[in-house]
Amino acid sequence: MEIINLVIFSRDNDYGLALGEALSIFKNNFVVNVCKNEDEIFGIRDFDVLIVDSDDLETGETFGRERVIRLTESRPDREAKLDPRDFVLYKHSSVRELAAGILLCHSLLTGKRNFLWPAEKPKVIAFCSAKGGTGKTTVAFGACQAIRRYYAKSVLYLSMEEIESTLIYMKGREDGFDLCAYLYYLFKAQGQNPNNEAFLLCDKFGVNAFMPDRGINRLRELTMDEMTLFFKEISENGAYDYIVIDMGESFSGKVKWIFQVCHKIIVISPPSEQERDDRQERFLNYLRFMTGESKGDAIISVINKAKDREDGLGTEESITIEFDPDSIVHDGEVLEISLDQDFGVGIKKLVKQMI
Fold first, then answer.
1. What is the pTM of this model?
2. Phi/psi at 255 (5° precision)
3. Average pLDDT estimate for 78-102
């Protein structure tokens, strides 16, 4: 991981020292020097980014605005905050938001990104169903957490839902960079590819997901070329072993393309024969046809919310996940998934086949 040398200039020495300590603890590749006058900055031979407290424009101009992040007492508007020619962060943001902004600024101004060359591309796993309400998103999140917890693999969760469910399961941020901002830099900001970490959320197990935009999911609006570039970026930066995708209920050309590149396709079905009806069989036949015979063993059938094991549930051709409301509880902010009860038994069986 590349070392990033930061200089913090603040006339409030206590604030500068506290910020420097917090940033260096939060990101171990940040090397931080704190200065309370300009002479001290001149004494530092080399630094990557200068962080100037409280709109001290004169100091910023002295060292060149292209290397400066300004901290302000009021929240900047979206446009100013995303302009690398005049990069501004709210000084009272959380350390995570400040670190994300610093990483974004550094990658945009230098063209450098923190990544490891991957030994191989991550495995892409899609979760889908023939109808809504089958618990697809809950199973997908449970699988992501199991991969992290039991196999110590890095996971990125992506949603192709029209309105994302991500913030139901992961704590969001009031401010900061989201998926929309990431796509802006990826496609429109003069080819400057941003550091992914600035745009990500992270749950207690270490599962990552892009901070959702406030409106419709922008991934669904990408052209085929844009979708290809997006997947290239997140696959080749070396950060993830698995990319898990909640496919929603769309069957656009982009969705079909995603199915083609999947390592495994998880098809979620409701428990009763009446609920499954013939749509599920048509859906499975379509997937087999679309992916070809060579990927026939890549499709895993899952029966979710099963209340008992009667009527042939949990056969060799499918995995049963029991109906277990006690394993999913609201902590006041998000839904917490427990893998230590009946729900987790089915998730562990599923993940064993997935990987």
1. 0.72
2. -65, -40
3. 70
